[in-house]
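Quick entry, no commentary yet.
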Amino acid sequence: MQPACFRKFSIGGYPLAKSADFGSLWDHSDCPTPAYFESSITHHESRNTHHESRNTQHEPRNTNHVTRPPMYNSILEKILLPLGDAALGTSFIRELKRWRGISMLNEDDLRILQRSNLSRLLEYAVKEIPYYRGLKGKDISDPFELLKEFPILTKSEIKQNIEDLVHGDKRNLVKEVSSGSTGVQGTVYMSKHEQSISRAIQTLWWEWAGYRLGNRFFQTGMTTHRGMVKRIKDVILRTRYTPAFDLHDGYIADRLNPLHSTEDYMLGGYASSLYTISQVAKERDINDIKFKSAISWGDKLFPHYRRSIESVFKTKVFDTYGCTEGLMIAAQKDLDHMYIMSPHVVIEIVDEYGKEVPDGQVGHVLVTRLDGNSMPLIRYRVGDLAIKLPEDEYPENRELNFPLLKQVIGRETDIVRTKSGKYLIVHFFTGIFEHFPQIKQFRVVQSNLDGIVIEYIPDRDFATGLLTKIRQKITDHLQEEFEVLFKEVERIHPTPSGKPQLIELRLSTPATPE
């Protein structure tokens, strides 16, 4: 039975219904308890549940079964890391075990768990968070429908209302700041436990790619100076950490030297940095390094990135999708599509006006974190474009039962517009330039709707005739007057976060509304 507990409300300039009051939103006896899910996870393999719908008939195959792990891996997970949790006041290992169990639930239980988590979050927000406190309106029994009545939260809104969004003393919380690749940095606060949840889910994703705690790991990242705790962590987890800022040929070659003729390492980091490393290895004819698998995060994994990494290092790339703000959204395992971590987040794909688009259509990503009470992120606009996979297109033989994300398109700011209203997403340009290896790097700059300037760095065998072919491909696609100019440059600077920028918009009006 669904708790008839919600009241539709308005906020921020919209009239509030005087006679309505949230009060106690519902009797929690109507909602599944944590014990229910602990039991469901524990006894999942022994149950023989029959479902009526096609989607709920699927039971995941137990592909995560492994033989006894090496001694060091066992010591690490059973002794060293639990001691670390106790010393630091974190709960990483406990959460990792919990999420391993959650990942084996069937579709019905995953839906129930997500609904329960969302219901509790919305009630908590209107009771405890000043930004949402006192919201009023008419009854809505479905938490997913109520969610649509909450305002969309942008990075600018967070910046302006940070004090009203945080519960408790910020000095007792962990502060996380995003890179600001959409133009505005995002700042969130979370407890150590909430941070542990995010790290546990990320580690679970790595396990989907074949990783086990303690396996050797070659990792790139955005931390230029590792503090004492992170250095200790690198030693314990046998991680060779390489900053992803300003990677250059000699530095990359030096970092790869110890890995020659080995197959012991996993590879992980920002997609662009992994691609850069693979290109340097290819140019220097380094062909005796094979990674067990590669895990991508942080920026867009373009198809030509994946092909290069897999070809050069004779491995398979698993892509993941998350945010610095603690949002672990989706990841690949056995499919080209990504599994959405539905008990952790609710994903909405909406148009420019905040209206949900049908599955299968591209739209702006709104994320609601379901287990972040210190600073609830509800309908947070992360600045990405993506597509959900329609349920009737779900593969029947998938290993897990989470809902599926069809594709992450990229940043909202990675879109070129024309006067007629046509859009060119970043994939359009990468799809062209991947056929012209004579151009080492490019960036598209748009200052007005009349056309674009393409900055480029020429590579070997470059000839100016290539530019004519590229221009022709763009204009043939658009079928309208659109100026395409080229500018040779010596270097294309990355964003302040260190990520490459393939499209830079300098329009007087933004391509998409904030």
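second:
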Amino acid sequence: MTTYIIRRLLLMIPTLIGMTLLIFMLVAMSPGGVGAALQVSGGGQMDSGSIAQQRAYLEDRYGLDSPILVQYARWLGRVSPIKFGARDQFAPNGDRFRKPRPAPEPPLWQWFVEALPAAPPVAKLEVPQDANARSQLYRSASGNYAQARASFLGTRSRFEIAMGDLAKAMDRPDVVRDRGQIRPEPARRIGKEAFQSADATLWAAAEQQAQAMFEAHVRLQEATAQLRSVYDARMFRRAGVPLIPGTVSLAAPDLGTSFGKSRPVSSLIAEALPITLLLNLIAVPIIYAVAIPSGILAATRQGSLFDVGIGAFYVALWSIPVVWAGVLAVGFLANKEYLGAFPVTGLHSVAGQGMPMLPRFVEIAQPDGTLSRAWQRGYLLDTLWHLALPVACLVYTGFAVLSKQTRAAMLENFNADYVRTAKAKGVAHKDVVFRHVFRNSLLPLITMFVSIFPAMLGGSVVIERIFSVPGMGSLIIEAIGLRDRELLLANALIVGLVNMLALLLADILYAMADPRISYD
């Protein structure tokens, strides 16, 4: 069994790599690429220069100017627990502090200067002893670096647009990107002289933008050197444990930062996952507590009125679309014009945070100075009240599948030879049902049980959207709409890993439930 488990764990690695690579390629090669929805939504309110600056920022942040496989390798290096190269540091605000990348070269700089202007040397950093001073030093260097990089990206975008205008004047759309920026490599093959002689006014505008780009590049080089000196000083706690100092280390996976929300992906998942788990941890036991006993009773009373009635009732429930049931629940059960017995959205009331945990009676002062006792439901009961409708919509479709599966598995075992032998020996009926038939009917139930875990992590998209529950389903839908690569990949990685671990758990439970199953 141990050898089998180790082999299965090792096989998970290439499976996860293949799965995440497929999702990575789909996001990267989709129209617009990373963050396309945000670019489109803001495009109507920004001029072409601002849009180009935003796109250039995306290219720099996600390394979109590199080949797709290189981008994937960088992401894989971040999420892998085995790290290569210098170890990250934890900044005072809790973010990961990485060694800043070198400033990228300005495009086509050889056409305007003989050599790139060099940044002045940075003075030797004196590390302060006070923690607040070190934190201030980091914030200052990090802020200057971010400002300088944004300035350089903006000037580079404006220069590329100016050169794109020149290419359009030359009637060479083949060297212009869809967003109106020049493509440096094809332009370099055409040559400087062709661009310079195309339009003197446009060339002068391009020279002006190139000069601004060079000045911004110098500032970026200086800011990069300052931030690198802060990193090299090792003023803050470093991530992980070194295996080979300076080369290989072991550290917690870094899921990256969400582009759409500008927050660490791990914190977003940490907020949404408990809500989804809470919904499922309430719904799943209800499904099993109702469906399995009713399936057992239906099997023991095959052909009876109960068997036919409960089967028809569960199938009728299963046939009701969840979307329709959720809309009806909101429109009638939660609408104050009708029943109004449940809240419409959310997990808590507006005053829920100030409530005590358990229900109790509180004294309320009346206008005449007297005190009256009023019942307050408390934070726990308020939460359950808000979860009632989402949980009801989650559970009703699960009764039919699990009950029918239990009934079918038990009917198959009722006709087995060992059951007839037990009955011939005079074994009590309840012992035949539970100790023999039900135990040998567990294998399909185990398969269904372990398949629930990935669904618990993924969340119910329909239910969470209808009832405005901020769980994993809503988070994934937002990530898909914004093409938030980091958030999508993190969710796919977690759900895929849990799915494979659940399948491994199913194999182990098979061997525990049936001694005839062995993996040796």
